[in-house]
Every structure is written in structure tokens, then in C-alpha cells.
Write a structure and sequence with these properties.
- Helix 4 packs across helix 5.
- The protein is 58% helix and 5% strand.
- Strands 1-2 form a two-stranded antiparallel ribbon. Strands 3-4 form a two-stranded parallel ribbon.
- The protein has 460 residues and is mainly α.
- The two termini are 55 Å apart.
- The protein folds into 3 domains: 90 residues, Fumarase/aspartase (N-terminal domain) (Fumarase C, Chain B, domain 1); 242 residues, Fumarase C, Chain A, domain 2 (Up-down Bundle), CATH 1.20.200.10; 62 residues, Fumarase/aspartase (C-terminal domain) (Ribonucleotide Reductase Protein R1, domain 1).
- Strand 3, helix 9 and strand 4 form a beta-alpha-beta unit.
- The chain has 18 helices and 6 strands.
- The structure holds arginine.
- The site of arginine (ARG) has 10 residues, from helix 6.
Length: 460
């Protein structure tokens, strides 16, 4: 074995020479999988205990291995494992353990393989990462609730097709971004339940030659149980793509919040104002306040979708068992988590500090045209007649260059006599909001109820 090479530390015996440097570079996962070291330590210790229980390793040797692992953990904690020259985190830990305890170090991998170990480490990492992202969603939800509670009485136009539709409360708009996050937190729990199965003891894929109690190992490592099939245990990564999917769904959902923040804070809309701390300037145009944070957050949806699609394509058609292609799971997971976590925290800060904008208000009174139609139905017209008449009123206002609210009873009567006596309070946006009393609507009471429900969930 060529000692100058990073590879071959765990498998050099069968080779007359080490791998070519370019293979070594492509093959090495240590530059990223060092992040798994704490999980690898947990797995090593549980495995060692099991080796002692089945009397494959004596208690004294196990003690010295445990204290060797303590030293290795301290080195990992204070050093820069990513810069070492080993193939992967498993090789590095064993090499350092050997420096502490000598050749007994290799007992740690008796009856197991990196194939089952890496799947175990990565599942443990993935469950913690899923919980971190759930917390980050929770912090964004809390920011939404706090800001929404300041904006209950601020009225803004709500949009469909990005055209002014009907007025709503700014709080109601903001809270509409709360609920997808809540469903995504449920999705994270569901995905975690499927990750929570132990591959360890599947060895290279055909099962361990030692009489390990895998169910006992599962309990020791906090899993719900052990994977039923050793080949599936080392080769399956559906739990990776499922988690990537949920993260992508979160990124796509918050990209819609980001888009609203960008558009609503633009001068043309001026419905909200993004705080200085979450705005950036232009090197050329002194007047600019750009929503770069929200724009990068909007891009995260695309980035994660690419990661998910790329990873699924990597899995497609792989033969049964472990294949090195699977090593890519960590790159996908680590980069996706980092990107999503920073996106969620920038959005939480942006939402927590945003203010209502100078252009907020109910918008064009034509946004109350539906209320006019509803009113006419109350006077005995069919909804179609009411809709047509209200539409004709909007058209006339447009022709005269006025808003519908500005038309005099006489001008309305010219369109149709049945429009003459429309009560003035129909143009009162607050009264219009109060008519939206049905559960989940824009009325003040309903929004306050929603806020309370959201507040409870956010702090769950
Ligand atoms: N670095 C590898 C991975 O992340 C560890 C497993 C390698 N197994 C093997 N038989 N070469 O998947």
C-alpha cells in the first residue's frame, strides 16, 4: 500500500499499489463527511458494547478502546478533521484510535462494514437535521405570529392573479404563510418516523457474521427498530430523498413569502417596508433599497429542487446493495440543510422587523364590487344580475376616470336605476372586512382567533 495516499487505510492489503491521485480525490468523502463524527462515536460505542456482550471483545480491551475513543473525540472537537488526508471519517477515526490503542483499534469494525455504519451515522444526522429545520420553521412561524399581531387593523388589498381582488387585513395575509409551515413540520415528523430504523449490523449488506442483537443495538442508539433486510438497510436512500423533498417543499413554500415581501415592499406597491437590517443598497444608485435577502430566499426553492432532482436521478436504476453513488447523499443533505436553515432565519428576521408601508389601505374601491353584487342580491336580484350591474358600474367609473365610490347616485342611475340607492357604507372597507365572518375569513374576530391558534402551534 502507498502510504502517501489518503485511501486504502482500511482496505490496502489486497492491493499492490495505491489508487491514482485523481481517483483518490474524487473518492474521498472526508472533506464533508467529517460532520458525522459525533454520530460515528455513538455508533462505535454501542457496537463495542455489543461486541463485549457477545464476548467477541474482552472488557479490558473494550475499556481501553472506550478511553481511546474519548481522546479521539477530543482531537476531533478541537482539530480540523476536514483537513486530514484520510478517505473518510470512518478511516480517520480508526487511524487516530490506532494511534491511541495500537492494533486493537481495528476491533471496532469487527463484524460490520462502512456500508452499514455510514447509513446509520447519516440517519442519526438526518433526524437531528430534520429537528433543526423544524425549529427554524417554528422560529419563522413565531415571527409571523408576532408581526401579524401588530398588523391586525392594517388593511391591504389581497390579490388573485396579482390583480387587486378584495381588501383583507395585513395580518391575514401574513398568517397565510404560517399554515404551510405547520403542514411541513408535520411532514418532517412523518419523514423522521421512516428514517428512524437502524441499518447497523447489516454489515456490507448480507448481514453480520457475529451474533449481534440488532434490536438491542437499535434501542441503545435510540432507533424505533432495526431494518428488516440487510441489503435494503445498506442500499436504501428513499429516506434521504423524502427528507430532501420535505425541505424542498419548505423552500418552495417560503419562496412565495419571499416573493410577496419583494413585491409588496416595492415602491409601486408600498404595502410593507423591510427594515434596513434586511435590505441592501446599490453600488451605483444611491436611492436603492433592495430586498436581496428575500430574493436569495426565493432562489432557495430552485436550488433545493435541483438538489432533490439530482439526488433522485442518482438513485434511479442503482443495483441492489451498497454502491458508491450513495456517498452523494451527504453532499445533498449537508448543502440543502445549510441553505435552508440560513434562508429560514433571514426570512424570520425580515418578517419580525417589517412595518406596514405608506401605500397600505384597501386599494381601489372597485375591489368591493363583489360586495355591491351581494348587496343587490339582497334587494331581490339574481347573483348574475347583481354581478352584471356591479361590473357595469366599474366600467362606467373607468370610462369617467373616477373610482366607483366617487360616482354620484345620478351617474349610477344612468347605468341602471337599480344602482341609484346603493348605500354609502358599501364603500367602507372595514365594514366589508367585517362581512367576512365565516371561519378562516378576514373579519377581525376571525383573524384574532386564527392568531391565537397559530400562536399555540408556533410555540409547540
Ligand atoms: N464514504 C462512504 C459513503 O459515504 C462510506 C462507505 C464506503 N463503503 C465502501 N464499501 N467503500 O458511502
Amino acid at each position: 500500500m502507498d502510504d502517501s495516499s489518503s485511501s486504502g487505510g482500511l482496505w490496502g492489503g489486497r492491493f499492490a499499489e495505491g489508487p491514482a491521485p485523481e481517483l483518490d480525490r474524487l473518492n474521498r468523502s472526508l472533506p464533508y463527511d467529517w460532520r458525522l463524527w459525533r454520530y460515528e462515536m455513538q455508533v462505535n460505542r454501542a457496537w463495542l458494547d455489543e461486541l463485549v456482550r457477545i464476548e467477541a471483545v474482552d472488557a479490558d480491551t473494550a475499556d481501553s478502546l472506550h478511553s481511546g475513543l474519548d481522546t479521539v473525540a477530543r482531537r476531533l472537537e478541537s482539530g480540523s478533521p476536514a483537513l486530514e488526508n484520510d478517505e473518510d471519517i470512518h478511516s480517520l477515526i480508526e487511524r487516530w484510535l490506532e494511534e491511541e490503542v495500537g492494533p486493537a483499534a481495528s476491533l471496532i469494525r469487527l463484524g460490520r462494514s462502512r456500508n452499514d455504519v455510514v447509513a446509520t451515522d447519516t440517519r442519526l444526522w438526518a433526524m437531528d437535521a430534520a429537528a433543526r429545520i423544524a425549529d427554524a420553521c417554528g422560529r419563522l412561524q413565531a415571527a409571523i405570529v408576532e408581526t401579524a399581531s401588530r398588523l391586525v387593523d392594517d388593511v391591504i388589498p389581497a390579490y388573485s392573479h396579482l390583480q387587486q381582488a378584495q381588501p383583507t387585513r395585513a395580518a391575514h395575509w401574513l398568517l397565510s404563510h404560517f399554515w404551510p409551515l405547520d403542514r411541513n413540520r408535520e411532514r418532517l415528523d412523518d419523514a423522521t418516523a421512516r428514517i428512524n430504523w437502524l441499518p447497523l449490523g447489516a454489515a456490507a449488506g448480507m448481514g453480520s457474521s457475529l451474533a449481534m442483537d440488532r434490536r438491542r443495538l437499535a434501542v441503545a442508539l435510540g432507533f424505533s427498530g432495526a431494518c428488516e433486510n440487510s441489503l435494503d438497510a445498506v442500499g436504501a436512500r428513499d429516506w434521504v430523498s423524502e427528507l430532501l423533498f420535505v425541505w424542498t417543499q419548505i423552500a418552495v413554500d417560503v419562496s412565495r413569502l419571499a416573493e410577496d415581501l419583494i413585491v409588496y415592499s416595492s415602491r409601486e406597491f408600498s404595502l410593507i417596508r423591510i427594515a434596513d437590517a434586511y435590505s441592501t443598497g446599490s453600488s451605483l444608485m444611491p436611492q436603492k433599497r433592495n430586498a436581496d435577502g428575500a430574493e436569495i430566499a426565493r432562489a432557495t426553492g430552485g436550488i433545493l429542487l435541483g438538489t432533490l432532482a439530482g439526488y433522485l436521478a442518482t438513485l434511479k436504476g442503482l443495483p441492489t446493495g451498497y454502491n458508491k453513488d450513495l456517498q452523494e447523499d451527504k453532499l445533498a443533505l449537508f448543502s440543502a440543510e445549510e441553505r435552508l436553515a440560513s434562508t429560514l432565519s433571514v426570512l424570520a428576521g425580515t418578517v419580525a422587523t417589517l412595518e406596514i408601508g405608506s401605500g397600505a389601505g384597501p386599494g381601489d374601491p372597485a375591489a368591493l364590487a363583489t360586495d355591491v353584487a351581494d348587496h343587490l342580491v339582497g334587494t331581490g336580484l339574481s347573483f348574475k344580475e347583481g354581478h352584471d350591474l356591479s361590473g357595469a358600474l366599474v366600467l362606467r367609473a373607468e370610462e369617467l376616470g373616477l373610482t366607483v365610490a366617487d360616482l354620484t347616485p345620478e351617474q349610477r342611475a344612468e347605468v341602471d336605476t337599480r344602482l341609484e340607492s346603493i348605500p354609502d357604507e358599501l364603500w367602507d372597507a372595514d365594514a366589508a372586512l367585517e362581512r367576512r365572518q365565516a371561519f378562516g375569513g378576514s373579519a377581525r374576530e376571525r383573524v384574532l382567533e386564527q392568531l391565537e391558534a397559530a400562536r399555540e402551534l408556533a410555540t409547540d
